[in-house]
Design a protein that fits this description.
Elements (H helix, E strand, L loop, with lengths): L2 H7 L3 E4 L6 H12 L10 E6 L2 H8 L12 E7 L14 H18 L3 E5 L4 H8 L6 E9 L1 E4 L7 H4 L4
Antiparallel strand pairs: 1-6, 2-3, 3-5, 4-5
C-alpha cells in the first residue's frame, strides 16, 4: 500500500476486538519505528511491549482515550533526553523524534490491518512508576494496538481551510 492510501485509511478505534496480535506483527511494527529518522541518528527511544492484563489495566486507567481499556497490546515509548540536547532553545529533540517513530508504527500497523490509538497526555511519573524505569528516561507516548471493533468519527478539516498563504 502506498503512503497516501495508508494515511487515508487510518481511523482511530473507539474499541478493539478481544483478539491477540501475533509477535511477528509486533516485531514488524517495532522495526518500522527503529527505521525512523532521529536527531544525529541517536535513536534515543526504548519501547516496552505490554501484554500483561494487570499492567494493561493500570495503563488504561491513566489515559483519557477509552480505546486503551480494550487494547490487547500497548507499546510504552520512553526516551533518554540526555543523549541529544535541544534544537536551540526550543523543543528537545526527543519530543520530535518519538512522534516520528510512533508515526512509523501507526503507518506500518495500518498496512497490516492493525488499528492504533496514540496518547501523549498522561501522568508521566505514574507511567514511569509502572515500569520501575530509570529516572533518566522520560515517558513520552503510549500506543494502543489491536483489531478494530468500532472507529471514532473522523473530524476532517478541509485542506483549503488549514492552508494560509503569505
Amino acid at each position: 500500500m502506498i503512503v497516501g492510501n495508508l494515511v487515508k485509511n487510518f481511523h482511530e478505534p473507539s474499541s478493539f476486538k478481544d483478539r491477540a496480535i501475533d509477535d511477528d506483527i509486533l516485531i514488524k511494527l517495532l522495526e518500522a519505528a527503529r527505521l525512523a529518522p532521529s536527531a544525529n541518528n541517536t535513536q534515543i527511544w526504548r519501547f516496552y511491549v505490554v501484554k500483561d492484563q494487570r499492567l494493561l489495566k493500570d495503563i488504561s486507567g491513566l489515559v483519557k482515550k477509552s480505546s486503551f481499556k480494550t487494547a490487547p497490546v500497548i507499546i510504552a515509548v520512553f526516551a533518554n533526553p540526555w543523549i541529544v540536547g535541544k534544537r536551540g532553545r526550543e523543543q528537545p529533540f526527543f519530543m520530535i523524534d518519538i512522534p516520528i517513530a510512533v508515526s512509523h508504527i501507526v503507518l506500518q500497523a495500518t498496512e497490516l490491518d492493525i488499528s492504533t490509538a496514540v496518547e501523549y497526555e498522561f501522568d508521566e511519573q505514574k507511567i514511569i512508576g509502572l515500569f520501575n524505569h530509570q529516572k533518566k528516561y522520560r515517558a513520552v507516548a503510549l500506543v494502543a494496538l489491536g483489531y478494530q471493533n468500532e472507529f471514532l468519527p473522523r473530524g476532517d478539516i478541509k485542506t483549503d481551510e488549514m492552508i494560509r498563504e503569505s
